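quick one: adenosine-5'-diphosphate bound model?
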Amino acid sequence: MATSGVYRNGSNKAPNLRASSSFKSKLPVSNVRRSIPGGATDTVSGRVRVAVRLRPRNAEEMAADADFADCVELQPELKRLKLRKNNWDSDTYEFDEVLTEYSSQKRVYEVVAKPVVESVLDGYNGTVMAYGQTGTGKTYTLGRLGDEDTSARGIMVRSMEDILANISLETDSVSVSYLQIYMETIQDLLNPANDNIPIVEDQRTGDVSLPGATVVEIRDQQTFIELLRLGENHRVAANTKLNTESSRSHAILMVHMKRSVLGGEDEFSTENENRSHSVGNFKPSILRKGKLVVVDLAGSERVHKSGSEGHMLEEAKSINLSLSALGKCINALAENSAHVPIRDSKLTRLLKDSFGGTSRTSLVVTIGPSPRHRAETASTILFGQRAMKVENMLKIKEEFDYKSLSKRLEIELDKLIADNERQQKVYENEVERIRLEAQKRVTEAERNCAEALEEEKVKCQMDYMESIKKLEEKWSVNQHKCVANGEVHMDSGNDEVTKLKALLQNEICLRKAAEEENKNLKLQLVKFSKAELSGGSTNVMNIQEILEEECRQNKKLEEEVRALKSQLSQLSTEANLSRSYLERGRNGNTPAGLDCLSPLNHLQSRDSSNGERASIVNLHEQVGLQKILSLLESEDANVRIHAVKVVANLAAEEANQEKIVEAGGLTSLLMLLRSYEDETIRRIAAGAIANLAMNEANQELIMAQGGICLLAMTASDAEDPQTLRMVAGALANLCGNDKLQMRLRSEGGIKALLGMVRCRHPDVLSQVARGIANFAKCESRASSQVLGTKHGRSLLIEDGALPWIVQNANNEASLIRRHVELALCHLAQHEVNAKDMISGGALWELVRISRDCSREDIKALARRTLTSSSTFVAEMRRLRIEV
Ligand code: ADP
Ligand code: MG
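yep, here:
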């Protein structure tokens, strides 16, 4: 496109030429007037552009004109040509372009034809024409095929190249006709038989067409070149004297362009843009119909100079008829004459649009350098000068392409119908799928729901059955417990009674035997006396002694029988008591004293019957304490058990305690703790010791006799909760003795006490808690004395009691809880324990006690304790606890 600037930039220097718009390849939009539809009406003025081309000297001229200077001198930079008149004078002419003998074919194309071709591509008509004397290079300029040398390709070939490069073969079409006018007949160069083609003019539009001409659609350059070659072969080429190769016919190449531009699109957008014809766009596309006419005129030489004769002369006349008609038309146009004799020749009729019409026209006038043809050269130059004055009104040829739009719409409609049908089907399928899916889900949900309901129902039933079962079990366990308790007690009572009965029976038998023997002896004595009366007296003496001994024995036995009887009655009473006690329990009366602070409540409750007490007192009185104590060492286990029970009962009475201890009962009881083989003996002995340990003097005695060790030993290996309870009770009593603190601890009393928590029986735990509370109380007393005997941490803490204390501070058994709460308060009163208590979590328990304890006194004590300890106060402040 750069070379098109030659026209654009070149100023029109010819004084006789109008300063018109430059020959632009693209017309300024503002210049375009249009009214679509209804055919092409947008017009823009466009003067015929004229270039002059000088042929180089040929061989002949080189030889013939060697001594003569050329008749023309070119000033291409000034776009001027000087035509020599004589040696000292010349005329100067300005052209739109001056092409020297050195101008390349490419340059000539770009300067002369390319702007026209571009206009044609934009929908205008265009004409490129060569005018000149035969042999000056018209055919060279326009029609060279460039077979041997591509750089020699002429305007026709290059125009088609440009066109094909700029159209879309899908939407646009190019077709050509190739004709010649020879002796005023129009011949089809593509079909020589078609040798008289009429010119048809559209009355309405005035458009000229040659409907008889062969029209060949061009889709590639090669086809086009073959067509040109074919046409060239057909072209009548009559030799003349001037140039044997030049033709005397006018050759006319017509290129018809049909270009489709989408409606609303910028018509002036570049041609190589991909213009999509999407079916979605229903604006009718705009059809642009450009026509390019390339005219290779026959020679313009005068007839008289041609030397033709006969037919040739006629021919020359015909040629010149068309040419002179063309000259006349151009003159008329140049001078704006009212009459332009277009109809005078076929050529002017065919070129109606090219001069004075709507076409963009470019003329190249060819001249030779030879001074011998100066006159022809001058006439050619004048022709060119006149042609430059011809003003055309360029008009775009476009119309709405309703046909293709309707075709497109039809295709689109069919496509939409098909699409719609497909979519309908897809939609129906989708609806069906969703319906099935929904149905499936509903079914599934229903099933799940039913299953869940069923499951829930079964679960509820199971739960219900389970609860019923549990309640029944509970009920039956309770029932069993009541019955079993009663029976066990009764069984043990009955056992004892049976044993005693057997014992008594045995004694009775023994007595009977003794009486029998006594009777026998008496009889023997009578016999003997009779014999002695007749014999000696020593034997009588002996027998008397034996008899007396027997009497003593008898008495003793009788005493024992009495004692046993009394015991039997006591046991019977006991059994009755147990029975009635159980009966009471079963009737809903809780046995009294179970939650009593006393460690011996069980024994005491058993001993609380006056009748029973009386029987024991009786027994005691009857048998004698010493005797009972001696029975503790009896080899008969039954006797030992019985004896220890008696002693335990006696020990429950404070009045007896001193006597028991004096008689060595304590020692015996302690010894019994060693008898592992019988748990009952240990349990009862421990109970007795516990009772004795209530007395302060006895406590010291127990300690002195190594009782702590024995109790600790029992504590560690006994398993019966009742035994442990008794041992714990004994130790708890000892814990309350201020004087024994250190020894109790050093002999392992505290450890033994704590060890018993392994048995989780509440009775045992309660005694342990009581012991701890007692010990803590003594410690706090010791530390609060003015000359405090207690220094350093609590021995309870030392022996690791704190975790258990903290753990049980809120024990659900109120008795345990009370003791532990008291223990905590006592421990807290000694500042030295505070740190351990805080780290052991005891502070929280104390705070809880100070807030929630149901016993006001303990609650107050806890509060008092907390507020009086600086360590606790500081910690509470840190933890933002308020008491
Ligand atoms: P015309 O068609 O005007 O009668 P041609 O095109 O047949 O003339 O040219 C006559 C001769 O001159 C041919 O042999 C051609 O090759 C030669 N010729 C014409 N123009 C040029 C040119 N510009 N350069 C070289 N040779 C040329
Ligand atoms: Mg020619």
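The chain has 32 helices and 17 strands.
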